[in-house]
Amino acid sequence: MADSTEMRFWGWGSDADAGELQPHIEGWLAQQFGSPLQSPAAPPSEQDVRISKSKLSKRVASGLSSIVGAANVRNDRHARLIHSAGKSYLDLLTMRSGKRIPAPDAVVYPADHDSVRAVLKLCAKRGVAVVPFGGGTSVVGGVAPLRGDFESVIAVDLGRMRSLLALDETSRVGTFAAGLRGPELEHTLRAHNLTLGHFPQSFEFSTVGGWVATRSAGQASSGYGRIDDLIVGARMATPGAELNLEPNPGNAAGPNLRALVAGSEGALGVISEVSLQLSQLPEASRYEAWMVPSFASGADALRALEQAGLTPEIARCSDRGETEMGVAFSGLDGAKAKLLDRYLRGRGVEHGSLMILGWEGASGSIEGRRRAAVDVLGEFGAVALGRGAGRAWAQSRFHTPYLRDHLMSRGVMVETLETSTTWSNLISLYRAVDKVLAMQAVVVGCHISHLYQTGASLYFTFLTPQTANDAAGQWRQLKSAACQAIVDNGGAITHHHAIGVDHKPYLKAEDGAAGIAALRAVKRELDPSGVMNPGKLL
Amino acid sequence: MADSTEMRFWGWGSDADAGELQPHIEGWLAQQFGSPLQSPAAPPSEQDVRISKSKLSKRVASGLSSIVGAANVRNDRHARLIHSAGKSYLDLLTMRSGKRIPAPDAVVYPADHDSVRAVLKLCAKRGVAVVPFGGGTSVVGGVAPLRGDFESVIAVDLGRMRSLLALDETSRVGTFAAGLRGPELEHTLRAHNLTLGHFPQSFEFSTVGGWVATRSAGQASSGYGRIDDLIVGARMATPGAELNLEPNPGNAAGPNLRALVAGSEGALGVISEVSLQLSQLPEASRYEAWMVPSFASGADALRALEQAGLTPEIARCSDRGETEMGVAFSGLDGAKAKLLDRYLRGRGVEHGSLMILGWEGASGSIEGRRRAAVDVLGEFGAVALGRGAGRAWAQSRFHTPYLRDHLMSRGVMVETLETSTTWSNLISLYRAVDKVLAMQAVVVGCHISHLYQTGASLYFTFLTPQTANDAAGQWRQLKSAACQAIVDNGGAITHHHAIGVDHKPYLKAEDGAAGIAALRAVKRELDPSGVMNPGKLL
Question: Does B42 reach chain A within 8 Å, measured CB to CB?
C-alpha cells in the first residue's frame, strides 16, 4: 500500500486541521441570508456510504498485480471510496447525499514510469478505463471514476512516485516524479536554497503531475509564472507509447510538445515525470494590505504595476463584495471595525477594494521594488493598511476549503469560479458574470489575481442557502448560467481549474471545432483504445 | 500584383544596401585560409537562370483566379523565380549553380483570411501542394517548392496581407495580418509608443506570420521573450477548417493550441492573423561591449545575470574565435588594435571573450539596472570596452547576410548553426560542436545569446574555402556532422531557425517517435489531403 496523505472522503484535509465554524462568520452569513444557518448536519461516516460493486475481472486484477505487486492493487472499500471523487462542490454534495457512490473498481499504485506504462498497456489491451489520480483535489470532476464504454475503471494513484529524480542546480531545473505533493517538493528544494514558487490553494495535497496535467497557476504566479511557463521537460506514458521531452530552455523544433502534455488532464496518458524551472528561495517576504477606491481603480493599478514590470510576486484585488466578506470573516471586533471604517472614510476609500500585495526575494531587492510599486499605487488612490492584514491573508490562504465543509454542513452552498481575459475586457467581463451570480446567490465576491502583461484572471466566490432537496440542481443551474456568461463575454472558461467534466461543454468556445478535432486526433494516436480518463477534457 | 519588398533571387536584400566586401575582411580571411580568396564570380542574372516549366492546370489556375483575382495569380518567370527558394547557404548555392531551378508552378496572393481558406480548400480538392510564403527568409529550406506526391505546387505569398488589424492599447495586444514585415510592424506600433521588441537578423524582410510559424527568437529575446512567449491569439486557415484562438493572457482550458500554431511551419495550415503581446517603446537604449577572460566565465556571468533577473534586453558573449573574427571584421587599424591589445592584456583579458550588452527601457530605469548588472559582471572579471563597440554591433546587426553574398562570390563557404541547452550543459555542448566544425572549417566562432533562467542558445558561424565543384556536398557533410554532434550532446536541433527540410531528420531526437506521431495525427486531421508544405517539418 502507498504511503499517502489521504483527505476526508466527504471533504477537505483532515479533522485535525479543520477547526470549527467561527461564530462571527455564522452570524454574518445569517444576517446576509436573512435567516439562521441550518443546524449542523453530521458528515457521513464511511460505513454508511454505499459504493458500487467492483467489476474488475480476476484476469485484469492478476495482470495488474504482476506489474505492481498484489499489495499495490487495492479493491477494498476504503481505497475505492477515497478515489471515487475529487473535491468539487458537486463531489462533496454527492458524498453527503446518501446515494450510492460510483467508485473505481480498483486502485493501482505503480512505483515508476515503466510500471505506469505496463499498467496502461494492459488496460488498453483489456479495455479498462484509467483515471490518473494525483492529489485528488480536482474541482471540475477531473478524477471522477467514469468508465465510458468500458466494463471497468481503475484509478492509477501516483502516491508511490514521490521523489526528486534529478536536480540541476546550475540550470535551476528539478525533475520530479509526478506524485510528489507541494509541501514535500518545497521541503526538498529548500535544502538547496531553491523553490518552485508554485502555491495553488490545493498546495498541501495536490501533486506536481496534477499541476502540469491541469495547467495550474499558483497564488504567486504573477511572480514565478504559471506551471505551463515553468515546464522545461516532461515524460508522459500513454497506452501505446511514451512522450519523452528532455529539459530544454527554448527552441524552434516544431510545435512545443510540452504544451501538449500541459493541460492533457489524463486524457492522453499519465504524466510520470516533470522537469521544472526553479527559483532561488526568497530570503525575505513582505505581505501587505492596501485599499483602493474601487474595483476598477484596483484593476488599473494592478495593470500599471504589471506593465511597468513592478508586480510583486503576489498581487490581488477584491471587489466590494469580497472585501466586505473578507473584513467580516476576519472577525474584527466592533470597536476595531469602527476605527477601520473611520480611517478608510477619512482617506476616501470607504466601500473600497482590498488589495493584497506580497513581495518575495532577496532582502536587499524587496525595498526598492516595493518603493517603486508604492509610487504607482499612490497614483490610483491606494491607501496602505499595513502588514498585519497581509500576513493574515498569507497565513490563512490554504484554509478556505475547510470553511466550505463547515458551511456545507450548515446548508450553505459555497462555490468558486474563475476565468481570465485581457485587461481591456476585465471589468466588463466581471460585471457580466457578477450579475448572473448575484441573481442566484446572496453573497458574491470576486478578486483579480494572476497578472499578465496582457490581462489577468477573475476569481469569484459565492455563498447562498442551499435549495432544499435539490442542491445539485441549484448548482447546475447556477454553474451553467455563469459559464455561459463567461464565454459569451470573452472570458476563458477556466483560468486554472481545468476542464474536467464540468467545463467540457465549453471547450469549443475556446478551441473551436477544429481545435477540438486536432486534440481528438492526438488522443486517437496516443490512446487508440480510448481508455485514458474517458469523459474528461475531450 | 502585390506590393512587396523583393530580395535578390540569388542572395540577400538589394544591391543598393549590399555594400562591398571590405579589403581588410578579405585580407584577414586570406591570411586565415593561407591563400587568397578566389577572384569575384559575377552573381547569376535572371535571364540566365533556367527554371522548371509551370505544371499548373488551367482548371486550377482559373479556380485560383476566381478567388483572388487573375492579377493575383502569377505564373510569370520572375514571380516564380523569386519564390523558388529561401535564403539558406544551400539555396544560394543552387541559384549560383547554373542548374535548372525547381520553382512553384504559380504564386498566389490572397487578400485576407477568407481568401486563404478558399485557396487551401481548392488546392486540397484538386491535389495542389501549397507552400506558405512570408518573407522567404528561411535558412532551412522552409519555402522550397516541394510538391510531394502532387502534380503541382503553388506558393501562397502573404504580401497583400500586411496591416495592423486591431490594437488594444490597454491590454498591449496587437493583432496583425500575417504578411506584415518587421519594419512596417515596428513603424506602425511606434505611433502608439509601443514595440513588439522582436528583431531577428531577418527583421527587415521576415513577416509576423513567418516568425510564429517558425518560433522565431529576436536578438532582444532575453528582454522581450521569444515569439512563442508573445502569442496571445492566432488564426490559422487549414484545408479543412480554421483554428481561431482569441486573444487570452493565460488559461487552463486543456492544451494551449497557440503552441500548435507556433512552429507549425506551414505544414498544418497558413497562419493568417496573429495577436501578440506588445511592450512600451523604450525611451532610451544603451549598448555596450565588455570583455571577459574566457568563454566559460562569460557563460557564468550571463547565467548569473539571468538568474538574478538582471539580464539586459540584449545579452551575448562570443567565444575566442568569434571575438577575433569580430575584431578583425571591425577593421581597427594597426595602431588602435595594438592599443586595444595592450589595454586588454593589462586587465588580464587578452584572448578573452567579447560580450555585447544592450539595455532598453525607460530612461530612468536603465541606469539602476545597469549598475546592478555591472556589479555582477565585475565578479566574473569583465572589463568594460565602452559604448562605441556596442553601438557598432547594433548598427551592423542586420547587415551580416550581405557579407555572406560577397564571400560566396569569392568562393567562401559561410554558414551558421544554432542550438540551445541547459546552463549546466552549455560549455560541454559548445566544445563538442566546435570540435566537429573545426575539423572541416578554417574559421569557426560561436556566441551565447537568448538567455533563459534554465539555459541559453549557442550560435555558431564558420567560414572556409569552398570545395571546388562540390560546395553542396561539402556543406552536406559538415551540416550532418554538426547536427549529429548537437543531438548527441543534448542540444536542441534548432533554437530559432526551425526545422524545414534541413533539420527534419533530427526532429525525432527532440520529439521521439510518439511526439512525431502525435503531430502527424494533427496534420492528418487539419490537412487530410496532405497538400500543406509537403516535405517540411514532419
Answer: no
User: Does B522 sit within 8 Å of A249, measured CB to CB?
Assistant: no
CATH number of the A284-397 domain: 3.30.70.3450
Grid cell for residue B359: 539595455
Under 8 Å CB pairs connecting chains A and B tally to: 282
**What angle is formed at CA A131 by the lines to CA A128 and CA A135, rounded to 5 degrees?**
155
Q: In which band, very low, low, confident or very high, does the pLDDT at A3 lie, cut at 50, 70 and 90?
A: very low
Q: What is the side-by-side strand order in the sheet with A164-168?
A: A164-168, A173-177, A270-277, A231-237, A242-245
Name the residue facing A492 among B253, B420, B537 (closest C-beta): B253
**Closest C-alpha among A282, A310, A128, A249 to residue B424:** A249
Question: Which CATH fold topology does B401-502 show?
Answer: GMP Synthetase; Chain A, domain 3 (3.30.300)
DSSP per-residue string spanning A144-155? ----TTSSEEEE
Pick left, alpha or beta for residue B345 (phi over 0 → left; psi -120 to 50 → alpha; otherwise beta). alpha
Give B214 to chain A, closest Cα distance, Å: 6
- Across the range A412-416, mean pLDDT stands at 97
- pLDDT tens digit sequence for B24-62: 999 999 999 999 999 999 999 999 899 989 999 999 999
Q: What is the CATH number of domain A15-157?
A: 3.30.43.10
What would the 3-class secondary structure string for A356-377 be? Answer: EEEEEECHHHHHHHHHHHHHHH
According to DSSP, the residues that pair with A128 across neighbouring strands are A152
A330, three cell numbers = 476576519
Interchain pair A249, B512: CB under 8 A = no
* Residue of A251, A258, A265, A499 to mutate for B, most B C-beta atoms under 10 A: A251
Residue A94 in contact with residue A144, Cβ under 8 Å?
A: no
Per domain, the residue ranges of chain B are 164-249+256-280, 284-397, 401-502
Q: Please check whether the two domains, B284-397 and B401-502, share a CATH topology.
A: no
Q: Categorize the per-residue pLDDT at B5 as very low, low, confident or very high, splitting at 50, 70 and 90.
A: low
| Contact (CB<8Å) A497/B252 | yes
Distance CA B426, CA B277 (A): 30
Q: Give SS3 for A107.
A: strand
B253–A307: do the CB atoms touch at under 8 Å?
A: no
| Single-letter residue type at B53 | K
Neighbours of B332 (CB within 10 A): 16
Confidence of residue A4 (pLDDT cuts 50, 70, 90): low
Q: ∠ CA A496-A498-A500 to the nearest 5 degrees?
A: 160
Set of chain A residues whose Cβ sits within 8 Å of the Cβ of B494: 251-253
> How far apart (Å, rounded) are the C-alpha atoms in residues B344 and B327?
13
Mean pLDDT to the nearest integer, B375-404: 92
For the domain covering A164-280, report its CATH number.
3.30.465.10
Say yes or no for a CB contact (<8 Å) between B242 and A172: no
pLDDT exceeds cutoff 60 at B2: no
Q: Which of A242, A254, A495 sits opposite B519 (nearest CB)?
A: A254
pLDDT band at A5 (very low <50, low <70, confident <90, very high): low
Interface test with A, best of B167, B425, B454 (most A CBs within 10 A): B454
State the average pLDDT for chain B.
Answer: 96
| pLDDT for A469 beyond 50 | yes
**Neighbouring C-beta atoms of residue B22, cutoff 10 Å:** 14
Give B90-145 as a 3 state SS string: HHHHHHHCCCCECCCCEEECCCCHHHHHHHHHHHHHHCEEEEEECCCCCCCCCCCC
- The predicted-structure confidence for B169-224, as pLDDT tens digits, reads as follows 999 999 999 999 999 999 999 999 999 999 999 999 999 999 999 999 999 998 99
Measured CA to CA, the distance from residue B430 to residue B432 in angstroms comes to: 6
CATH topology for the B164-249+256-280 domain? 3.30.465
